[in-house]
Amino acid sequence: MGNALRCFGGEDDHHGGGGHYPYYQPQYYSHDPTAAVPRPHQQALGRHGVSPATVGGGALRQAAGPNIGHLQWSNGVLANGVAASQYQNNTEDIDESSAEGLRDAKSYAKANPMLIQVPVLGTRRKFWRLSDNATRISRKLALILRSQHSVGKFLSAPLQVSNVWIGSTGTVKLRGVSFNGEGFSIERVRDDYKNLSKVLQALIRISGGNVAKLPPDYSGFLALLGDDNLRMKDEFLIVNNAALLPMKNRTEVFLMLHERIVKYLGRTNKAKKKSILSKLPYENDWLDTARANAQINQWVVNAQNEYKKTQSDLLRLNRNVRSHLHEYNDDDIEEILYCEWPELLAVMVKMLHLEGELEVTDIQNKFG
Hints:
8 strands; 38% helix
């Protein structure tokens, strides 16, 4: 059995990178054993979007092929054995007195709604999305699990809401858990993420949210956590999932990924670019959606080159809007774009992952 972990914390500066193990250095106490029909997340929403499965785990299996060598990481750290721990002491990982003002996740969720409803500016509709605190907590918990998996350890018992503690500054820590290396396997990794999905859904319910109204990108994230065929390399997609990005960073990430897909792959690998574009959602109605939104329509009617119903032009419109955020004095445009096309960025991230192009981007540094 692994050493008991009194309190294990995850911080944003893990970055969720793909080439550095371990991702986090916890400290152990070895002496302490213990106009169609609206979708569920919108009201009177127009026609757009695809099912959560679009960004879920099933699509990963189709594009990536069979999972050869369950215990082999994409960077080769773990092949047929377990990498040696390179932990360094970090007192920030341990909490015994709640000096940081930690509170149990249940009471935190009751006081802080995780699923919030926002108006879609430019329309009369409303949209349900995760709060930035909710996505931050989701990612930190995923980072904790991934860091343990990177050294061949998994939770000895299923993660529970009572194990999660949250600080006033946004820190997330675990209590009353232990990690075990004996019998480590891909099945144990999958079990950890499935239990994380249950905890996250429970916290949303406790906070007063209805999981039936989750935005489709976050539903896709939960589907990925529950995927029966999850591979080790897919952990990079979990901790760097677009559904977990803070709203203020989505513009920067979109422009970075657009550069990778349209410009870089357009020059170096047109087949990959074509494959990614072919999987983008909203093919049939994105232009109608843009014209129906008074805010976005400003870019449509004033375009020098008329937009057509192609996936390339969907990206072009999104890029043009984000590249000129202040042209129309609209500081809320990023949230508008997310509410209208909530799965676009998530599918871009997923497809880059499947094509082996995501880890070479800087996405792991965009969650702070």
